[in-house]
């Protein structure tokens, strides 16, 4: 099991994120003692997080989304209750955890991937879910080395309940542009 998965499980058991610095450092020290290797995999960059933030938007008070799910922060849904409020710091922490929960590294395997490609695909996976991303034409074409085909496949993900949503069209165009290194 990777460190990322161990940290995610501990966060779930605790029901909260880690205190930056001390708790994370202590966790790393314990995992070092247990011989769990430190990951060398890619992580979503600040550019990728900015893209996700731009299209998710941030609400510090819980709201019922169009899918009738209580949501807060940047699209966070786990354990959200009506009337709940959070700070901007908490919204950023929830986003960091949610992005980690949508990590695409295992799906990419050893496929050569640039940071921009990783960020663009991570944004898509964050929005549509890992299961859908795992079966997506974007991932299939990327793994085959068909970068232009993968980039164009982002544009397929513009529907919600059978309707084209302008916000999804804008998001997919931005993801495509980032994937191609044009952002």
Identify the notable features of this structure and list them briefly.
mainly alpha; 10 helices; two-stranded antiparallel sheet; 4 strands; 183 residues; two-stranded antiparallel ribbon
Textual characterization of the structure:
The chain is mostly helical. The chain has 2 domains: 1-40, no CATH class; 41-179, Lysozyme. It is 55% helix and 8% strand. It is built from 10 helices and 4 strands, in the order αααββααααααββα. The strands form 2 sheets. A two-stranded antiparallel ribbon has the order 1-2. A two-stranded antiparallel ribbon has the order 3-4. The termini are far apart. The model has no long low-confidence stretch (mean pLDDT 89).
Annotate the secondary structure layout.
Elements: H1 3-14, H2 22-33, H3 46-56, E1 59-64, E2 70-73, H4 88-101, H5 105-108, H6 115-128, H7 130-134, H8 137-143, H9 147-153, E3 159-160, E4 163-164, H10 166-179
Antiparallel strand pairs: 1-2, 3-4
Helix pairs in contact: 3-6, 6-10, 8-9, 9-10
Question: Strand sequence of the main sheet, in spatial order?
Answer: 1-2
- In CATH's first tier, which class of the largest domain applies? Mainly Alpha
- Percentage of residues in DSSP E strands: 5-15%
Helical stretch tally: 10
Please describe the biggest sheet, giving its number of strands, its sense, and whether it closes into a barrel. 2 strands, antiparallel
The name of the CATH topology of the largest domain is Lysozyme
So what's the overall shape? globular
Radius of gyration: 17 Å
Helix content, binned percent:
40-55%
Overall SS class = mainly alpha
The parts where pLDDT drops under 50 for at least 5 residues are none
Under the CATH scheme, the architecture of the largest domain is Orthogonal Bundle
The helix/strand order is HHHEEHHHHHHEEH
Head-to-tail CA distance between termini: 35 Å
Number of domains: 2
Count every beta strand, where a strand is a DSSP E run of 2 or more residues. 4
Could you tell me the mean pLDDT? 89
